[in-house]
Automatic annotation (TrEMBL):
Organism: Limosilactobacillus avistercoris
InterPro entries tied to this protein: KH_dom-like_a/b, OsmC/Ohr_fam, OsmC/Ohr_hydroprdx_reductase, OsmC/Ohrsf
Name assigned to this protein: OsmC family protein
Gene3D superfamilies: 3.30.300.20
Length: 142
């Protein structure tokens, strides 16, 4: 098991949030604010697409699978959905994606390859099968 750590900090500008890890930083924002970055749900979809592309690249390398190019078009519907006991939550109710690739492999081999990409992508697994959230209390800073 690997543990990843990030920090997200609200800036003093509009709804902007700076998030980072390992010396890298992403700016989040909202279109109705200063619109200086993608919003969190757009970045969630982007993370899924990036995970698919990275997983495909690594699988192709390991299997000598002919993968000349790979990208994913993704869309998601954000809305209220009942998650149990009449508890409606705002969440993605559906995420749709279409992988695109250039390859000289057979259609059957491509289908098997894409099924393995989906099975091995940790972001897809997290979204599809859920994960446990644990709040570790809170800290009031001076």
């Amino acid at each position: 098991m690997s543990t990843y750590k990030v920090k997200a900090t609200k800036t003093t500008t509009g709804m902007q949030v700076a998030a980072g890890t390992r010396g890298f930083e992403i700016t989040f924002d909202e279109p109705g604010s200063t619109n200086t970055g993608m919003n969190p749900v757009e970045i969630l979809l982007t993370s899924f697409g990036a995970c698919q592309a990275i997983t495909a690249t690594e699988l192709a390398r390991k299997r000598n699978f002919d993968l000349q190019a790979f990208w994913v078009n993704i869309s998601g519907d954000l809305g209220h959905e009942n998650v149990g006991n009449d508890d409606k939550r705002y969440k993605f109710t559906e995420i749709r994606y279409t992988p695109h690739l250039r390859s000289d492999e057979s259609e059957e081999d491509i289908k098997k390859f894409l099924a393995d990409v989906a099975r091995k992508c940790p972001v897809e697994n997290t979204l599809a099968y859920g994960t446990k959230f644990v709040e570790n209390g809170f800290v009031v800073e001076d």
